[in-house]
Amino acid sequence: MKSLLMIGVAGSLFGAGLVLSHMVEPQRVLGFLDITGNWDPTLMFVMAAALAVTLPAFRWVLNRPAPVMENKFCLPTKTRVDTRLVLGAILFGIGWGLAGYCPGPAVTALALGWTEPLLLVAGMLAGGWVGKHFSN
Fold first, then answer.
1. Cα–Cα distance, 11 to 21 (Å, whole number)
2. pLDDT, tens digit, for every residue of 46-65?
3. pLDDT digits (tens, 9 = 90+) for 84-125
4. Cβ atoms of 88 and 1 closer than 8 Å
5. 8 Å CB contact between 117 and 131
6. Rounded Cα gap, residues 115 and 71, in angstroms
7. Which residues are within 8 A (CB) of 121 and not within 5 positions of it... i.e. 6 or more apart?
8. What is the distance between the alpha carbons of residues 29 and 90, in angstroms, rounded to a whole number?
């Protein structure tokens, strides 16, 4: 139960950060990608702030013997860049550029009651299901 509570707190904090930084607004992301027109650097500043917090926090957290609510860390083990990773990144980028949403802001926008990202989230869920059931 404590783990679920912490997941809820972390997700709420992340969602609040997205709302405060206006990253749930697709025009912010699309403005960042519009380098030849009306470029909006907001996303760059949000990413820089996230890195400024995350990098030292990872160093501190990973020096602990285990997470606070778990018995061990579950870190990624894959280190190789393969075709599947590259194709997934390309598809993610295309979807992000077309819709102006990535998964976190899309789900946060739904939680705010916005209906605009409904189709995108449905597509994300369908893509995740296909990937899980039809990949090797």
1. 15
2. 999 999 999 999 999 999 99
3. 889 989 988 888 888 888 889 999 999 999 999 999 899 889
4. no
5. no
6. 39
7. 103, 106, 107, 110
8. 17
